[in-house]
Structure of Histone deacetylase:
Amino acid sequence: MSSFVRKPFDPITVSSTDKRRVAYFYDSDVGNYSYGTGHPMKPHRIRMAHSLIMNYGLYKKMEIYRAKPATKQEMCQFHSDEYIDFLSRVTPDNLDLFQKEQVKFNAGEDCPIFDGLYEFCGISGGGSMEGAARLNRGKCDIAINYAGGLHHAKKSEASGFCYLNDIVLGIIELLRYHPRVLYIDIDVHHGDGVEEAFYTTDRVMTCSFHKYGEFFPGTGELRDIGVGKGKHHAVNVPLRDGIDDATYRSIFEPLIKRIMDWYQPSAVVLQCGGDSLSGDKLGCFNLSMRGHANCVNYVKSFNIPMMVVGGGGYTMRNVARTWTYETGLLNNVLLDSELPYNDYYEYYGPDYKLDVRPSNMHNANSPEYLDKILTQIYANLENTKHAPSVQMNYVPPDMEDFGDVEEDTALAKDTQGGSQYARDNMVMGDNEFYDDDAQAEGINSKNIEDNSKETENRTSRVSIMQPLFEDSNKEKKENDVTSTNVPFSTLKNGEGEHKK
Ligand SMILES: [Zn+2]
């Protein structure tokens, strides 16, 4: 029997009775960081998305937080001390002193050392860790961090515009409460850093949909399924150029359903890289905004605690549009197609619409090819029956479980340069997003008040996790002979196809 059945692309719908609580993490500094002129990765797109999200009025639906930046100690729950030490000390001005380390940690062309790099990493990681901490405590049902999603970063290596793997850090936090976490990646590139981190454990299942073949990072073959205890807990969907909405949906939905049934995760992390959209500067897929957003809506429909992070995306206006539309869906709102006035309105001309349209590019993913992929993945899953009753590892209790926790722990003071109260007041300092209507409803003060209760989450986030995967990198590296080391920024749309 054929596994792949091409279904039509139905209109996206939301439920008005769905009352899930959404926590959205944003740091107003994030848009100020720059990888350098000419570099395709632009943190500014996160600020553009935020401005659209606010001007659509979504602050009325969700709670908005500025997370405490990830500390060195937190970063080192995954990354090596010497790598994080390097990131914290290197600057464009003292680069000469770190020539050896630059080579060792792969800093350079794709991953330049820019001003404020370490703070940028702290913001990205802090949002994902705090999002996970809120999900753990049942304080929200969905956490969003578009400054996160940097899936290529390795334990001791920068890669593909990523330095700190906020996703791995967020998942480690989730594992303190959740026996099984599912990671889904819809970026056009393989989610190699996350896969590698959890390649030998069955407590995290990774599933990446990506372009494969003469494309960065060169990994993510169909036959890579995990090793040891992690065997069958990595799923790779290698795709070809030009995949469209209907085709993507026809492979995404049945596969995710199958994995949900098989693995029964208690939490899910969705990486929403926007470089799988049509017209992306580095990507080669042909998804419209709705085709991309359908994945978000579908994962949400399983109704389990969900973390949504950003990722790639190099045509800024389309990334901002799509993440805004998806934020609407996560709040059960179908946003109007007419863009509201916002700080970056001129970017959205000439149509000023909330839409990303597909092009007429060729779809190189034949039904036969996709059938082969699905059949193989299903066979792999049926091969072993997953035991959902997997024992939880020992989880260290939260600091607060030992009794009252002081508002400002020494660590918090040390890393913040100010009191918790002062920081809480920094949250949502930008009143310009609040119209009179919202002020009358007291939304602004509600958010600040609620943030002042965040201390418990912030301290709980700090407690130390047992090392889960100390040696997972080793095993993967030894087995990994597939990497072709194609530089990220130099290989654009289809260019690599001519190399053969
Ligand atoms: Zn990407």
User: Anything to note?
Assistant: The first strand starts at residue 22 and ends at 25. The pocket of zinc ion is lined by residues 187-189, 273, 275, 311-312 (CB under 6 Å). The radius of gyration is 21 Å. DSSP finds 17 helices and eight strands in the chain.
